[in-house]
Amino acid sequence: MSGKPSDCIVQLQVGERHFTTSRSTLIEESTYFESLLSGRWNTAREDGSYFVDADPDLFVHILRYLRRRVLPDVRFFGISALETYLAERNYIDRVKVCRWVADTGDGSLHTRDDSSLSVEYHTHWVNLGEVYVCPRRLAAHRGHSEKCGRRCDSAKADGMYTYEEEHGVRVFAVYTRVTIAE
């Protein structure tokens, strides 16, 4: 051990967010942080902080647990049944996470009014195939040779239709639903 007092302040960078807490909060129940902060390895960054490659949105809940052992709001609002439920960890068997991916097809973003459902959108460049190109380069005719008339036909270089590869963005939605069984 490096002789650090157990209540010294520790700066963490978890993912892209920064957290400040005490060393004793981190090491009391976490073997990971006990090892990270043991002084056996030189893992501190130049500014004295420690980098943890984890999801900062989830780490908020981990740190909240390490500080109070149960969600502090439960105790603050006097919800003793929920405090007991969380302390006994009965929720682990009741939580179900379901995740699926859907291609939005037209690239539009769909919203749903469902608090148990979260949606993340991811884009991907794709080859949409070859599309007709109007000899006069009229955008309204792109992909629709039937819209071209005599003036377009007379502008054809060799009397042949022209096609180009077209690329576009596909949008995929990753849905996650977390439910808790009764």
From TrEMBL:
The UniProt record lists the BTB domain at: 8-67
Xref: PROSITE patterns: BTB (PS50097)
One Pfam match, given by its short name, reads BTB_2
| SMART domains hit by this protein | BTB (SM00225)
List the SUPFAM superfamilies: POZ domain (SSF54695)
Identification of the protein by name: BTB domain-containing protein
Q: Which organism is it from?
A: Aspergillus keveii
